[in-house]
Amino acid sequence: MTPPNKDGKKTADRGPAGRFTKGNRASPGRPAGRGKVAELRDKLAQDLDQIIAVLRAQALAGDPQAIRILLDRVLPSLRPVELPTPLSMPDGTLAQQAHAVVQAAADGDIAPSQAAQIITALGGVAKIVETTELLARIEALESKHGKS
To answer: In the chain, where are the structural domains located?
Structure first.
């Protein structure tokens, strides 16, 4: 047995933390699909048709828990969906557009969550514009001073 690695350096069998590295032949670990959970799944798979038949019969007889189990597995819960809302943005600065979005949310024309997403998008646009302008300024300065 190789002693744990205490100097923080990698060895052939162990990583810096002293644990076996991935793919180590000395300790490959448990193969996938083994263990108590896999055994339970195998046992249930043998009788799955009968289990489903019993659950179906109970649901048809009016058992609310059986109905809920079947519906949860067959029909997943519906997620709330926000419908797109048209919003006219002014042709101006990003600050003016952000103000228009906040005003639309305040007036109830769009949902606050939609306003937050639009403001975040406008912030991303502002960063892109700022980076582009800085790059142009740096290139102009470098060309003026003869640097590449």
So the answer is: 36-74, 94-145
